[in-house]
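I'll show a sample.
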Amino acid sequence: MQMRLRGQHPTVESLSTRQKALEVNLDQRRYGTFAEIGAGQEVVRWFFRVGGASGTIAKSMSAYDMKVSDAIYGRASRYVCRERLESMLDYEHKLNIDRLRESRGDTTAFFAFADTVSARNYHGTNHCHGWMGIKFQAHPRDDDSQIIIHVRMLDDDAALQQEALGIVGVNLVYGATMLNHEPELLVDSLLDGLTTSRIEIDMIEFSGIGFRHVDNRLMSLKLVELGLSGAAMFAANGEVLQPSEYFYRKAILVERGSFRPVCNVNLDMLRSANEKFSAQPNVKGKEIAPVMEITMNNLKAEGQIDLRDFLARADVIAACGMPVLISDYFQYYRLAAYLNGLTKESIAIVMGAASMKDLFDEQYYTGLQGGVLESFGRLFKNDLKVFCYPLQNQQTGELETSDNLEIKPEIQQLYNYLRDRGDIVALDNYDPNSLGIFSRDVLKRIRNGDETWQSMVPPAVAEVIKSKSYFEYEPS
C-alpha cells in the first residue's frame, strides 16, 4: 500500500491536531454535541484538552452499553453501521436545536458529531473499522449539512487505533466548520497528521444545503486519487457505497474496463460469466453482486484525470444499472486480495482473451520477489475464478478462447495447469453478435459522426451519450 504523510497541501498551511481543535473552540459561532460509541471519547478529548471547550461543547456522551444505546437512539441491525451513525446524528442535532435555538439560535451554528467504532478487541479477531460523521449548520439559522465517512483502522494496537480515530475526528470537525466551502480541500485534509499505513477512508458522502452542488462520485474518485483509500464505490443512482457493507455475504463478479463507452459486448461478458459463475457448486443459490471496475491507471492513461471523461464513463455505466468500483489495484492479484477482505463468498473476474494474454505477461510482476508464480499464487489462493470471453480475429474471423490461447512458451505450462485445474474457465455461452464490437472502434465512430455506433451500445447508453454530448458526440 502506498504510504503518504498527510497535511502537505501546497496552498494551505498545515495545522496540527491541537491547533485545529483550538481554532474550532475559539470560534464563537460553533456549539454542539459529541456522541461516541465503541472506542471511548477519543475525538472530544482533543477539544477538552486544548482549552476553551466550554464555548464549543454543549454535551459529550458515550452510550457504550448496547441497551443504553438502543434506549437513546432506537434499535439497529448492527451497532457499527451507517444506520446507527445517522440515528445518532439526527437525534443529537435535533436535541441541540430544540433546546437552544430560542436562546442562542441567532448567533450560533449548531453541530452534532458522532462516531460508532469497532477498535481492536483483546484477542485481535475483529474487523477494525468505524463510521464517523457530523451534521451541522454552516451559518446560524442555516439549513443542515452533513458529512459521513467510513474508516478502516490499520494499526495493530488498540491504543494507536484510538489515537488515529481522535485525529481524523478532529480533522473532520475542523473541515466541516472551516473548509465546508472547499470540499476537495476538506477531503485532502482528513488524514492530516496521519499516514495511510494507519488509517484508510474508503467512503465519504456530502449532503445538505451546503453541499448541494457537490457530486459525490467525484469525491469518491478524490479519495482514491489522493491515496486515502485503495478503492471507492458508488451505485448507479450516484449514491456512495461502502464496499464491505455492499458486498457483505455476496459472491462478487468483476469486469474491468475503460467503458468508453459501455458496449453490448461488455454486458454480454457479464451475462455469460454470471451464468457460469452462478452454476458453480459453491455459488449456486447465493446472491451475486456484479460490478464494473475502472482503475486509476486507466483514468490516468492520458496524463491527468479528465473529470468530464470520468463522469461520462460513470453515467454510461449507471445507464446499465451497474455500480462502479474505482480502484488503485492495477495488478489483478492486488484486486483479488482487496475483494477477499470484503466477503467470505466466492469471487470471479471476467476478461477478454486479449486481457488474458496480458495477465500472463511477466513484465507486470518484476516487483514481486517470486515473480509471475507469486502473483498467481496470490490471485488464485481462495478459489477465485477467471472467466475468459473469446476474441474474434477481425481479419480471419477465427476465435481465440482460453482453450486455444497461445502464451509465451516459458509460461504455457503454468497457464495449462491453471486452466486444467478449473481456475480459468472458457465462456462458450456468448452472443455471436457481440464479438465484433470493440469500445475503441465505437469511440472512433462517435467522434467521426458515424451513426452506426448506436447499434453497438445499449439503447440507454446511446441516449445518455447523445443527451449529454459525451465522448465528443455531435448531433448530425
The domain at 245-472 is CATH 3.40.50.620 (Rossmann fold). The two ends are 48 Å apart (CA to CA). Residues 1-12 have pLDDT under 50 and may be disordered.
